[in-house]
Amino acid sequence: METKEINNYKKAGEVWKNVIKFARKKVVEEISLLELAEKIETKIIEEAGLAFPTNLSLNEEAAHFTPNGKKEDDRILKKEDLLKIDLGVQVEGYICDGAITINLNNEHAKQIEANELALENAITKAGFGKKIDDISKEIETTLKEKGFNPIYNLGGHGLAKNDIHSFPSIPNHASGTTAVLEEGAIAIEPFATTGKGIVSESPQVEIFSLKEGKNVRNIYGRKILEKAKKCSGLPFSERWLRKETKLNEFQFIIGLRELMKASVFETFPGLKEVKGAMVTQSEKSLLILEEKTIVLGE
């Protein structure tokens, strides 16, 4: 890997570290999730670039939830909520992706600690030429020893230039794969749950990425597409598109509908456990080099 690439990953990691500290301080009871997301994203933009919309997932929600910015989007944080903050920073397309879990009344402290321990233990198994399955086994073993299940259909992933989910896949449970880590960036991402360990798709979709750049006839759809192309293939939110296009509600809905009909966008539905289950998340990005492994943002 070239020095410039390594330095870009490191810079993204430093910004991620600064922003996650900033985010922790902003998490207070009764803050709206929309306000929190916008503060975090503004902070990222001040120092680098956004890799994807800030994910703010509550309780049984695991991933891909972000405020939509509509007037009725009024969710606020309660002290008993289990909040996952997953944010991504990119520098010239090179990404640091990481997440933390916060619970203001500390009712779920043991679960958060178990999740963080699973991540710490998994990182010790990561390195050039090391087996991916050893990372996965460590996550599963740690969480089960602490009385929680991993989420079996979620896991870590590679981080390529302008690609948030690239090869390799890093399951959160033993899978029997014989694949080993090669040079490149990865995200290790344990999820702990009090449920069965399976998430399903929610009807709610707020995050998209550009699948095909083909045009549509609808003038509003073309305006939305123009803004989506500026994300260089990285995910974006409906909230961003609404703000950037400045279309009214009717125009935006018509334009987005035309793009979806033409299969221009890939969708990332919200992912959630069964109602009543509690989900935590811890995530860090690593740079795997032949001579060493760098934990970004440390």
Beta-strand content bin: 25-35%
Shape: globular
Number of helices: 7
Low-pLDDT sequence parts: none
Radius of gyration: 19 Å
| Number of beta-strand segments | 15
CATH topology of the largest domain: Creatine Amidinohydrolase
CATH architecture level-2 label of the largest domain = Alpha-Beta Complex
Sheet with most strands: 5 strands, antiparallel
Kindly report the spatial arrangement of strands forming the biggest sheet. 7-6-8-14-15
CATH class assignment of the largest domain: Alpha Beta
Structural class: alpha+beta
The name of the CATH superfamily of the largest domain reads Creatinase/methionine aminopeptidase superfamily
List the domain count as a whole number.
2
Q: Helical proportion?
A: 25-40%
The arrangement of helices and strands along the chain is HHEEEEHHEEEEEEHEHHEEEE
> Terminal Cα separation, in Å?
20 Å
Mean pLDDT reading: 96
Overview of the structural elements:
The chain contains seven helices and 15 strands. It is of the alpha+beta class. It has two domains: 3-199 and 273-295, Alpha-Beta Complex (Creatine Amidinohydrolase); 202-270, Arc Repressor Mutant, subunit A. The strands form four sheets. It has a five-stranded antiparallel beta sheet. Helix 5 (219-229) crosses helix 6. The longest helix has 24 residues, at 3-26.
